[in-house]
Specification:
The chain folds into two domains: about 10-215, TorD-like (Orthogonal Bundle), CATH 1.10.3480; about 230-345, no CATH class. With about 350 residues, the chain is mostly helical. The protein has helices spanning about 15-40, 45-50, 70-85, 90, 100-110, 130-145, 150-185, 185-205, 235-245, 245-250, 255-265, 275-285, 290-315, 320-345. The longest helix is centred in the middle third of the chain and has 33 residues, at about 150-185. The N and C termini lie far apart (about 45 Å). The protein is globular.
Length: about 350
Protein backbone atom coordinates (compact mmCIF):
# COMPACT_ATOMS: atom_id res chain seq x y z
CA UNK A 1 0.00 0.00 0.00
CA UNK A 2 2.84 2.39 0.75
CA UNK A 3 4.02 2.31 -2.86
CA UNK A 4 0.98 4.36 -3.86
CA UNK A 5 1.95 7.23 -1.58
CA UNK A 6 3.83 9.86 -3.55
CA UNK A 7 6.41 11.83 -1.61
CA UNK A 8 6.19 15.59 -1.16
CA UNK A 9 8.45 17.17 -3.79
CA UNK A 10 11.00 19.87 -3.12
CA UNK A 11 9.56 23.37 -3.64
CA UNK A 12 12.89 24.47 -5.06
CA UNK A 13 12.89 21.85 -7.81
CA UNK A 14 9.22 21.56 -8.81
CA UNK A 15 6.94 23.95 -10.64
CA UNK A 16 4.97 26.07 -8.12
CA UNK A 17 1.61 25.07 -9.56
CA UNK A 18 2.42 21.37 -9.27
CA UNK A 19 3.76 21.83 -5.74
CA UNK A 20 0.64 23.69 -4.61
CA UNK A 21 -1.64 21.14 -6.26
CA UNK A 22 0.11 18.29 -4.50
CA UNK A 23 -0.18 20.00 -1.11
CA UNK A 24 -3.90 20.59 -1.64
CA UNK A 25 -4.28 16.94 -2.71
CA UNK A 26 -2.52 15.73 0.45
CA UNK A 27 -4.72 17.99 2.55
CA UNK A 28 -7.72 16.43 0.81
CA UNK A 29 -6.59 12.96 1.88
CA UNK A 30 -6.31 14.14 5.48
CA UNK A 31 -9.84 15.55 5.28
CA UNK A 32 -11.15 12.32 3.78
CA UNK A 33 -9.65 10.26 6.60
CA UNK A 34 -10.91 12.75 9.19
CA UNK A 35 -14.45 12.45 7.87
CA UNK A 36 -14.36 8.65 7.99
CA UNK A 37 -13.19 8.65 11.61
CA UNK A 38 -15.47 11.43 12.83
CA UNK A 39 -18.75 10.14 11.43
CA UNK A 40 -20.41 7.03 10.07
CA UNK A 41 -20.67 6.60 6.31
CA UNK A 42 -23.91 8.09 4.95
CA UNK A 43 -25.64 7.79 1.56
CA UNK A 44 -23.70 10.62 -0.05
CA UNK A 45 -20.34 9.37 1.16
CA UNK A 46 -21.11 5.80 0.19
CA UNK A 47 -21.60 6.96 -3.39
CA UNK A 48 -18.28 8.82 -3.36
CA UNK A 49 -16.39 5.94 -1.76
CA UNK A 50 -17.69 3.49 -4.36
CA UNK A 51 -15.83 5.59 -6.94
CA UNK A 52 -12.66 5.95 -4.87
CA UNK A 53 -9.75 3.83 -6.17
CA UNK A 54 -8.69 2.74 -2.69
CA UNK A 55 -12.03 2.20 -0.96
CA UNK A 56 -14.13 0.85 -3.84
CA UNK A 57 -12.50 -2.63 -3.68
CA UNK A 58 -12.92 -2.62 0.11
CA UNK A 59 -16.68 -2.19 -0.32
CA UNK A 60 -16.98 -5.19 -2.64
CA UNK A 61 -17.93 -7.54 0.19
CA UNK A 62 -21.06 -5.41 0.74
CA UNK A 63 -22.09 -5.28 -2.92
CA UNK A 64 -24.76 -7.97 -2.52
CA UNK A 65 -26.60 -5.96 0.14
CA UNK A 66 -29.44 -3.74 -1.02
CA UNK A 67 -28.51 -1.22 1.69
CA UNK A 68 -25.04 -1.67 3.21
CA UNK A 69 -25.31 1.41 5.44
CA UNK A 70 -26.71 -0.40 8.54
CA UNK A 71 -23.81 -2.85 8.46
CA UNK A 72 -21.26 -0.05 8.00
CA UNK A 73 -22.81 1.94 10.84
CA UNK A 74 -22.81 -1.07 13.15
CA UNK A 75 -19.16 -1.72 12.35
CA UNK A 76 -18.25 1.93 12.98
CA UNK A 77 -19.82 1.70 16.44
CA UNK A 78 -18.29 -1.69 17.20
CA UNK A 79 -14.77 -0.64 16.22
CA UNK A 80 -14.52 2.95 17.46
CA UNK A 81 -17.03 3.10 20.31
CA UNK A 82 -16.53 -0.37 21.80
CA UNK A 83 -13.06 -1.58 20.88
CA UNK A 84 -10.42 0.82 19.53
CA UNK A 85 -10.77 4.35 20.97
CA UNK A 86 -9.62 7.03 18.48
CA UNK A 87 -7.94 9.26 21.10
CA UNK A 88 -4.24 10.03 21.45
CA UNK A 89 -4.27 9.86 25.26
CA UNK A 90 -5.29 6.19 25.22
CA UNK A 91 -2.05 5.32 23.42
CA UNK A 92 0.61 7.70 24.76
CA UNK A 93 -0.53 8.30 28.35
CA UNK A 94 0.06 5.52 30.89
CA UNK A 95 -3.10 6.59 32.73
CA UNK A 96 -5.10 6.53 29.44
CA UNK A 97 -7.23 9.41 30.74
CA UNK A 98 -9.20 11.57 28.31
CA UNK A 99 -9.26 15.33 28.84
CA UNK A 100 -6.17 15.19 31.07
CA UNK A 101 -2.61 16.35 30.35
CA UNK A 102 -2.26 14.68 26.94
CA UNK A 103 -5.55 16.08 25.65
CA UNK A 104 -4.67 19.49 27.06
CA UNK A 105 -1.36 19.44 25.17
CA UNK A 106 -3.19 18.71 21.91
CA UNK A 107 -5.69 21.49 22.60
CA UNK A 108 -2.80 23.88 23.24
CA UNK A 109 -1.24 22.88 19.93
CA UNK A 110 -4.53 23.69 18.21
CA UNK A 111 -4.55 27.12 19.85
CA UNK A 112 -0.92 27.77 18.90
CA UNK A 113 -1.68 26.80 15.29
CA UNK A 114 -4.93 28.81 15.17
CA UNK A 115 -6.92 25.66 14.46
CA UNK A 116 -10.49 25.74 15.71
CA UNK A 117 -12.29 22.38 15.56
CA UNK A 118 -15.81 22.53 14.20
CA UNK A 119 -18.08 22.77 17.28
CA UNK A 120 -20.60 20.38 15.73
CA UNK A 121 -18.10 17.51 15.96
CA UNK A 122 -19.51 15.19 18.61
CA UNK A 123 -16.27 13.79 20.02
CA UNK A 124 -15.22 13.04 23.56
CA UNK A 125 -11.96 14.97 23.61
CA UNK A 126 -9.77 17.28 21.55
CA UNK A 127 -7.23 14.55 20.79
CA UNK A 128 -9.66 12.55 18.59
CA UNK A 129 -7.80 11.38 15.50
CA UNK A 130 -10.38 13.03 13.24
CA UNK A 131 -9.66 16.46 14.70
CA UNK A 132 -5.90 15.95 14.51
CA UNK A 133 -6.29 14.95 10.85
CA UNK A 134 -8.32 18.10 10.17
CA UNK A 135 -5.64 20.21 11.83
CA UNK A 136 -2.98 18.65 9.61
CA UNK A 137 -5.14 19.33 6.55
CA UNK A 138 -5.34 23.00 7.50
CA UNK A 139 -1.55 23.22 7.91
CA UNK A 140 -0.97 21.79 4.43
CA UNK A 141 -3.62 24.04 2.88
CA UNK A 142 -1.88 27.02 4.44
CA UNK A 143 1.42 25.78 3.00
CA UNK A 144 -0.13 25.44 -0.46
CA UNK A 145 -1.32 29.04 -0.34
CA UNK A 146 2.26 30.18 0.30
CA UNK A 147 3.71 28.53 -2.80
CA UNK A 148 3.63 31.54 -5.15
CA UNK A 149 4.88 34.04 -2.57
CA UNK A 150 7.79 32.94 -0.39
CA UNK A 151 9.94 29.84 -0.36
CA UNK A 152 11.24 30.72 3.12
CA UNK A 153 7.72 31.04 4.54
CA UNK A 154 6.75 27.80 2.82
CA UNK A 155 9.71 25.98 4.38
CA UNK A 156 8.72 27.33 7.81
CA UNK A 157 5.12 26.18 7.32
CA UNK A 158 6.29 22.71 6.32
CA UNK A 159 8.41 22.56 9.48
CA UNK A 160 5.32 23.46 11.52
CA UNK A 161 3.33 20.72 9.79
CA UNK A 162 6.11 18.18 10.30
CA UNK A 163 6.38 19.04 13.98
CA UNK A 164 2.63 18.62 14.58
CA UNK A 165 2.67 15.35 12.68
CA UNK A 166 5.63 13.95 14.62
CA UNK A 167 4.50 15.24 18.02
CA UNK A 168 0.93 14.04 17.65
CA UNK A 169 -0.59 12.14 14.72
CA UNK A 170 2.40 10.02 13.75
CA UNK A 171 3.37 9.32 17.36
CA UNK A 172 0.27 7.15 17.86
CA UNK A 173 -1.76 7.02 14.63
CA UNK A 174 0.13 4.07 13.10
CA UNK A 175 -0.43 1.86 16.17
CA UNK A 176 -4.06 2.96 16.28
CA UNK A 177 -4.46 2.15 12.57
CA UNK A 178 -2.87 -1.24 13.11
CA UNK A 179 -5.37 -1.98 15.90
CA UNK A 180 -8.30 -0.88 13.71
CA UNK A 181 -7.14 -3.11 10.85
CA UNK A 182 -6.72 -6.07 13.21
CA UNK A 183 -10.14 -5.73 14.86
CA UNK A 184 -12.24 -4.72 11.84
CA UNK A 185 -14.58 -7.38 10.48
CA UNK A 186 -15.42 -5.44 7.31
CA UNK A 187 -12.82 -4.92 4.60
CA UNK A 188 -13.74 -1.22 4.45
CA UNK A 189 -12.58 -0.44 7.99
CA UNK A 190 -9.66 -2.84 7.71
CA UNK A 191 -8.49 -0.87 4.67
CA UNK A 192 -9.05 2.41 6.51
CA UNK A 193 -6.85 1.30 9.40
CA UNK A 194 -4.08 -0.07 7.18
CA UNK A 195 -4.02 3.02 4.99
CA UNK A 196 -4.01 5.38 7.98
CA UNK A 197 -0.91 3.72 9.46
CA UNK A 198 1.02 3.71 6.18
CA UNK A 199 -0.14 7.18 5.13
CA UNK A 200 0.95 8.90 8.34
CA UNK A 201 4.38 7.27 8.26
CA UNK A 202 4.84 8.05 4.57
CA UNK A 203 3.78 11.65 5.14
CA UNK A 204 6.20 12.14 8.01
CA UNK A 205 8.98 10.49 6.02
CA UNK A 206 8.24 12.82 3.08
CA UNK A 207 7.98 15.99 5.16
CA UNK A 208 11.05 15.36 7.29
CA UNK A 209 13.59 16.42 4.59
CA UNK A 210 11.92 19.86 4.57
CA UNK A 211 12.33 20.25 8.33
CA UNK A 212 14.88 19.58 11.03
CA UNK A 213 16.29 16.03 11.23
CA UNK A 214 13.89 13.84 13.16
CA UNK A 215 15.14 12.62 16.52
CA UNK A 216 13.64 11.44 19.78
CA UNK A 217 13.10 15.04 20.85
CA UNK A 218 10.49 15.35 18.08
CA UNK A 219 8.47 12.35 19.18
CA UNK A 220 5.35 13.07 21.20
CA UNK A 221 6.07 10.20 23.60
CA UNK A 222 9.45 10.02 25.36
CA UNK A 223 12.01 7.52 24.07
CA UNK A 224 11.46 4.11 25.66
CA UNK A 225 13.48 3.15 28.68
CA UNK A 226 14.24 -0.50 29.26
CA UNK A 227 10.94 -1.86 30.65
CA UNK A 228 10.96 -3.54 34.04
CA UNK A 229 9.96 -7.07 33.07
CA UNK A 230 9.62 -8.08 36.72
CA UNK A 231 5.95 -7.16 36.33
CA UNK A 232 5.51 -10.52 34.58
CA UNK A 233 6.57 -12.25 37.80
CA UNK A 234 3.86 -10.49 39.80
CA UNK A 235 0.13 -10.63 40.35
CA UNK A 236 -2.30 -11.08 37.49
CA UNK A 237 -3.81 -7.63 38.15
CA UNK A 238 -0.41 -5.97 37.63
CA UNK A 239 0.30 -8.01 34.51
CA UNK A 240 -3.14 -7.13 33.14
CA UNK A 241 -2.65 -3.42 33.76
CA UNK A 242 0.66 -3.54 31.88
CA UNK A 243 -0.77 -5.42 28.92
CA UNK A 244 -3.81 -3.17 28.44
CA UNK A 245 -1.69 0.01 28.56
CA UNK A 246 -0.36 0.70 25.04
CA UNK A 247 2.32 3.10 26.28
CA UNK A 248 3.78 0.18 28.26
CA UNK A 249 2.93 -2.89 26.18
CA UNK A 250 3.61 -1.32 22.77
CA UNK A 251 0.29 -2.38 21.25
CA UNK A 252 -3.44 -2.04 21.86
CA UNK A 253 -5.24 -5.09 23.27
CA UNK A 254 -8.95 -4.66 22.58
CA UNK A 255 -12.04 -6.28 24.04
CA UNK A 256 -12.58 -7.86 20.62
CA UNK A 257 -9.20 -9.59 20.83
CA UNK A 258 -9.88 -10.80 24.38
CA UNK A 259 -13.25 -12.22 23.34
CA UNK A 260 -11.46 -13.90 20.44
CA UNK A 261 -8.90 -15.45 22.78
CA UNK A 262 -11.55 -16.46 25.31
CA UNK A 263 -13.65 -18.10 22.62
CA UNK A 264 -10.68 -20.03 21.30
CA UNK A 265 -9.84 -21.30 24.79
CA UNK A 266 -13.52 -21.78 25.73
CA UNK A 267 -13.24 -19.34 28.63
CA UNK A 268 -16.39 -17.25 29.30
CA UNK A 269 -15.92 -13.50 29.60
CA UNK A 270 -18.11 -10.61 30.73
CA UNK A 271 -18.01 -7.40 28.64
CA UNK A 272 -16.40 -5.22 31.30
CA UNK A 273 -13.43 -2.85 31.45
CA UNK A 274 -10.40 -4.24 29.58
CA UNK A 275 -8.14 -4.69 32.59
CA UNK A 276 -10.84 -6.60 34.46
CA UNK A 277 -11.49 -8.75 31.39
CA UNK A 278 -7.83 -9.68 31.14
CA UNK A 279 -7.63 -10.54 34.84
CA UNK A 280 -10.65 -12.82 34.29
CA UNK A 281 -8.89 -14.45 31.35
CA UNK A 282 -5.68 -15.02 33.28
CA UNK A 283 -7.49 -16.39 36.35
CA UNK A 284 -9.64 -18.79 34.33
CA UNK A 285 -6.75 -19.88 32.13
CA UNK A 286 -4.73 -20.76 35.22
CA UNK A 287 -7.71 -22.58 36.77
CA UNK A 288 -8.41 -24.66 33.67
CA UNK A 289 -4.72 -25.27 32.89
CA UNK A 290 -4.61 -23.34 29.61
CA UNK A 291 -2.44 -20.49 30.87
CA UNK A 292 0.40 -21.33 28.51
CA UNK A 293 -1.97 -21.19 25.53
CA UNK A 294 -3.24 -17.78 26.64
CA UNK A 295 0.25 -16.40 27.18
CA UNK A 296 1.39 -17.80 23.83
CA UNK A 297 -1.50 -16.01 22.10
CA UNK A 298 -0.62 -12.72 23.79
CA UNK A 299 3.05 -13.24 22.97
CA UNK A 300 2.16 -13.69 19.29
CA UNK A 301 0.15 -10.46 19.35
CA UNK A 302 3.09 -8.51 20.76
CA UNK A 303 5.46 -10.14 18.27
CA UNK A 304 3.09 -9.32 15.40
CA UNK A 305 3.22 -5.61 16.24
CA UNK A 306 7.00 -5.72 16.77
CA UNK A 307 7.47 -7.38 13.37
CA UNK A 308 5.28 -4.76 11.73
CA UNK A 309 7.38 -2.09 13.41
CA UNK A 310 10.55 -3.57 11.95
CA UNK A 311 8.96 -3.59 8.50
CA UNK A 312 7.97 0.06 8.93
CA UNK A 313 11.49 1.03 10.02
CA UNK A 314 12.84 -0.56 6.84
CA UNK A 315 10.25 1.13 4.63
CA UNK A 316 10.43 4.56 6.30
CA UNK A 317 13.99 4.87 7.68
CA UNK A 318 13.67 8.64 8.04
CA UNK A 319 11.10 8.28 10.81
CA UNK A 320 12.58 5.29 12.64
CA UNK A 321 12.58 7.10 16.04
CA UNK A 322 8.78 7.32 15.93
CA UNK A 323 8.40 3.64 15.13
CA UNK A 324 11.17 2.48 17.46
CA UNK A 325 9.23 3.56 20.54
CA UNK A 326 6.45 1.10 19.78
CA UNK A 327 8.60 -1.66 18.33
CA UNK A 328 10.88 -1.80 21.39
CA UNK A 329 7.92 -1.86 23.77
CA UNK A 330 6.22 -4.66 21.85
CA UNK A 331 9.47 -6.65 21.74
CA UNK A 332 9.89 -6.24 25.49
CA UNK A 333 6.31 -7.38 26.07
CA UNK A 334 6.84 -10.48 23.93
CA UNK A 335 10.01 -11.19 25.91
CA UNK A 336 8.22 -10.71 29.23
CA UNK A 337 5.43 -13.07 28.22
CA UNK A 338 7.97 -15.68 27.13
CA UNK A 339 9.62 -15.34 30.54
CA UNK A 340 6.25 -15.74 32.25
CA UNK A 341 5.59 -18.91 30.25
CA UNK A 342 8.94 -20.36 31.34
CA UNK A 343 8.20 -19.61 34.98
CA UNK A 344 4.71 -21.11 34.70
CA UNK A 345 6.05 -24.27 33.08
CA UNK A 346 8.36 -24.74 36.08
CA UNK A 347 5.48 -24.22 38.48
CA UNK A 348 6.77 -20.86 39.73
CA UNK A 349 3.86 -18.67 40.87
Amino acid sequence: MSSSLQAHPSPASDAPIGWASLLFARAGLYRLLARLYLEEVDVAWLGLLREHPMFAPALADLAALEDPLPKLRAEYARVFLLNVPPYEAVYVDEDMMLNASCTQAVAQSYADLDFQPNPIRAVGAADHIGLELECMAQLLEQAAELVPSSEDRLATQLQIAQRFLSDHLASWGPIFGLAVAHDARLAFYRTLGEFTAEFLLAELDALTPHAAPLGHEHVGSPPPANPDLRVFEGEFRDIARYLVTPALAGFYLSREEMFRIGGHLQLPLAPVERRVMLVQLLDQAARYEVLDELLAWLQREAARVANTGRDWEHTYPGVAPVIEHWRRRAEATASGLAQMRRLASRGVS
